[in-house]
Design brief:
Distance between the termini: 14 Å
Strand content: 15-25%
Number of strands: 5
Low-confidence stretches: none
Largest sheet: 5 strands, parallel
Shape: globular
Strand order of the largest sheet: 1-2-3-4-5
Order of helices and strands: HEHEHHEHEHEHH
Amino acid sequence: ILAACEERDLAYSMVTNGTLINHESIKAFREFSRLSVMVSLDGVGLVHESIRGKGTFKKVDRILRGLVDAGVEVETLCTLNAENMSRFREVAEYCRKIGIVCNFNLFKPFWPEQNVLVPEPRAFFATVIELFRMRQFEGYNIGLSNAAIVGDLLGMAHRDECRATRSGFAINVHGQMI
Protein backbone atom coordinates (compact mmCIF):
# COMPACT_ATOMS: atom_id res chain seq x y z
CA ILE A 1 0.00 0.00 0.00
CA LEU A 2 2.80 2.41 0.87
CA ALA A 3 4.61 1.65 -2.39
CA ALA A 4 1.39 2.15 -4.39
CA CYS A 5 0.88 5.56 -2.77
CA GLU A 6 4.50 6.51 -3.41
CA GLU A 7 4.26 5.46 -7.08
CA ARG A 8 1.18 7.63 -7.52
CA ASP A 9 2.84 10.66 -5.96
CA LEU A 10 0.33 10.78 -3.10
CA ALA A 11 0.97 12.16 0.35
CA TYR A 12 -0.04 9.56 2.93
CA SER A 13 0.16 8.82 6.60
CA MET A 14 -0.02 5.83 8.87
CA VAL A 15 -1.64 5.99 12.30
CA THR A 16 -0.38 3.36 14.72
CA ASN A 17 0.00 2.62 18.41
CA GLY A 18 3.67 1.94 17.57
CA THR A 19 3.97 -1.35 19.41
CA LEU A 20 4.58 -3.47 16.30
CA ILE A 21 7.10 -1.12 14.67
CA ASN A 22 10.67 -2.39 14.90
CA HIS A 23 14.12 -1.49 13.56
CA GLU A 24 13.40 -3.19 10.22
CA SER A 25 10.12 -1.27 9.85
CA ILE A 26 11.91 2.01 10.49
CA LYS A 27 14.52 1.16 7.85
CA ALA A 28 11.75 0.35 5.37
CA PHE A 29 9.88 3.59 6.16
CA ARG A 30 12.97 5.59 5.17
CA GLU A 31 12.39 4.49 1.56
CA PHE A 32 9.10 6.37 1.34
CA SER A 33 9.58 10.09 0.84
CA ARG A 34 5.92 11.03 1.33
CA LEU A 35 5.14 8.89 4.37
CA SER A 36 4.16 10.48 7.66
CA VAL A 37 3.84 8.18 10.68
CA MET A 38 1.46 9.24 13.44
CA VAL A 39 1.95 7.36 16.71
CA SER A 40 -0.63 7.33 19.51
CA LEU A 41 0.75 8.81 22.72
CA ASP A 42 -1.93 9.22 25.37
CA GLY A 43 0.37 10.31 28.17
CA VAL A 44 3.92 10.05 29.41
CA GLY A 45 5.04 6.98 31.35
CA LEU A 46 2.38 5.40 33.53
CA VAL A 47 -0.38 7.65 32.19
CA HIS A 48 0.11 6.21 28.70
CA GLU A 49 0.35 2.69 30.12
CA SER A 50 -2.87 3.05 32.12
CA ILE A 51 -4.65 3.60 28.80
CA ARG A 52 -2.61 1.51 26.32
CA GLY A 53 -1.25 -1.28 28.53
CA LYS A 54 1.76 -2.12 30.67
CA GLY A 55 5.12 -1.65 28.97
CA THR A 56 3.74 0.30 26.02
CA PHE A 57 5.29 3.67 26.85
CA LYS A 58 8.82 2.30 26.77
CA LYS A 59 8.14 0.74 23.34
CA VAL A 60 6.54 3.89 21.97
CA ASP A 61 9.33 6.08 23.32
CA ARG A 62 11.96 3.88 21.66
CA ILE A 63 10.04 3.86 18.35
CA LEU A 64 9.44 7.62 18.32
CA ARG A 65 13.12 8.32 18.96
CA GLY A 66 14.11 5.72 16.34
CA LEU A 67 11.84 7.31 13.73
CA VAL A 68 13.23 10.78 14.53
CA ASP A 69 16.83 9.51 14.33
CA ALA A 70 16.09 7.81 10.99
CA GLY A 71 14.66 11.01 9.54
CA VAL A 72 11.16 9.58 9.11
CA GLU A 73 8.37 12.16 9.31
CA VAL A 74 6.69 11.39 12.64
CA GLU A 75 4.06 13.01 14.83
CA THR A 76 2.11 11.91 17.88
CA LEU A 77 -1.62 11.83 18.42
CA CYS A 78 -2.92 12.22 21.95
CA THR A 79 -6.56 11.34 22.43
CA LEU A 80 -7.80 13.41 25.34
CA ASN A 81 -10.13 11.63 27.73
CA ALA A 82 -11.26 12.02 31.34
CA GLU A 83 -8.21 10.04 32.58
CA ASN A 84 -5.41 11.88 30.78
CA MET A 85 -6.71 15.35 29.96
CA SER A 86 -5.18 16.98 33.03
CA ARG A 87 -1.73 15.74 31.88
CA PHE A 88 -1.72 17.25 28.36
CA ARG A 89 1.24 19.54 29.18
CA GLU A 90 3.47 16.54 29.89
CA VAL A 91 2.72 15.13 26.44
CA ALA A 92 3.36 18.48 24.76
CA GLU A 93 6.64 18.90 26.64
CA TYR A 94 7.78 15.34 25.83
CA CYS A 95 7.15 15.96 22.13
CA ARG A 96 8.90 19.31 22.28
CA LYS A 97 12.00 17.69 23.79
CA ILE A 98 12.30 15.11 21.02
CA GLY A 99 11.36 17.61 18.31
CA ILE A 100 8.07 16.28 16.95
CA VAL A 101 4.56 17.60 16.41
CA CYS A 102 2.02 16.68 19.06
CA ASN A 103 -1.58 16.45 17.87
CA PHE A 104 -4.55 16.34 20.22
CA ASN A 105 -8.07 15.14 19.63
CA LEU A 106 -11.17 14.25 21.63
CA PHE A 107 -11.93 10.71 22.79
CA LYS A 108 -15.04 9.26 21.19
CA PRO A 109 -16.55 6.18 22.86
CA PHE A 110 -17.16 3.01 20.87
CA TRP A 111 -19.21 1.29 23.61
CA PRO A 112 -21.66 2.70 26.19
CA GLU A 113 -19.39 1.71 29.11
CA GLN A 114 -16.71 4.03 27.70
CA ASN A 115 -18.92 7.09 28.20
CA VAL A 116 -17.23 7.64 31.59
CA LEU A 117 -14.04 8.50 29.65
CA VAL A 118 -15.63 11.41 27.77
CA PRO A 119 -14.23 14.63 29.28
CA GLU A 120 -16.55 17.21 30.75
CA PRO A 121 -17.15 19.73 27.90
CA ARG A 122 -16.05 22.87 29.76
CA ALA A 123 -12.80 21.23 30.86
CA PHE A 124 -12.19 19.95 27.34
CA PHE A 125 -12.70 23.36 25.75
CA ALA A 126 -10.52 25.01 28.40
CA THR A 127 -7.80 22.48 27.53
CA VAL A 128 -8.16 23.16 23.80
CA ILE A 129 -7.89 26.90 24.40
CA GLU A 130 -4.76 26.35 26.52
CA LEU A 131 -3.23 24.11 23.82
CA PHE A 132 -4.01 26.75 21.22
CA ARG A 133 -2.39 29.39 23.44
CA MET A 134 0.71 27.21 23.93
CA ARG A 135 0.99 26.84 20.16
CA GLN A 136 0.43 30.49 19.41
CA PHE A 137 2.45 32.14 22.18
CA GLU A 138 4.91 29.57 23.56
CA GLY A 139 6.12 27.99 20.33
CA TYR A 140 4.87 24.46 20.98
CA ASN A 141 4.41 22.45 17.80
CA ILE A 142 0.83 21.42 18.58
CA GLY A 143 -1.89 20.29 16.21
CA LEU A 144 -5.57 20.31 17.06
CA SER A 145 -7.48 17.86 14.93
CA ASN A 146 -10.97 19.26 15.30
CA ALA A 147 -11.24 21.71 12.41
CA ALA A 148 -14.52 23.15 13.70
CA ILE A 149 -13.03 24.09 17.09
CA VAL A 150 -9.81 25.48 15.62
CA GLY A 151 -11.75 27.41 12.99
CA ASP A 152 -13.92 28.95 15.69
CA LEU A 153 -10.85 29.95 17.75
CA LEU A 154 -9.36 31.57 14.64
CA GLY A 155 -12.62 33.34 13.78
CA MET A 156 -13.04 31.40 10.53
CA ALA A 157 -16.31 30.43 8.84
CA HIS A 158 -18.28 27.61 10.50
CA ARG A 159 -17.51 24.04 9.33
CA ASP A 160 -19.96 21.27 9.98
CA GLU A 161 -18.66 18.44 7.83
CA CYS A 162 -16.09 15.72 8.35
CA ARG A 163 -13.88 14.88 5.40
CA ALA A 164 -12.12 11.89 6.98
CA THR A 165 -14.22 9.29 5.19
CA ARG A 166 -13.44 10.87 1.85
CA SER A 167 -9.69 10.81 2.25
CA GLY A 168 -8.69 7.76 4.25
CA PHE A 169 -9.17 4.16 5.16
CA ALA A 170 -8.09 1.87 7.98
CA ILE A 171 -6.76 -1.66 8.11
CA ASN A 172 -7.64 -3.57 11.26
CA VAL A 173 -5.42 -6.07 13.08
CA HIS A 174 -6.84 -8.87 10.91
CA GLY A 175 -5.70 -7.17 7.70
CA GLN A 176 -9.21 -6.13 6.70
CA MET A 177 -9.74 -2.71 5.15
CA ILE A 178 -12.37 -0.62 6.91
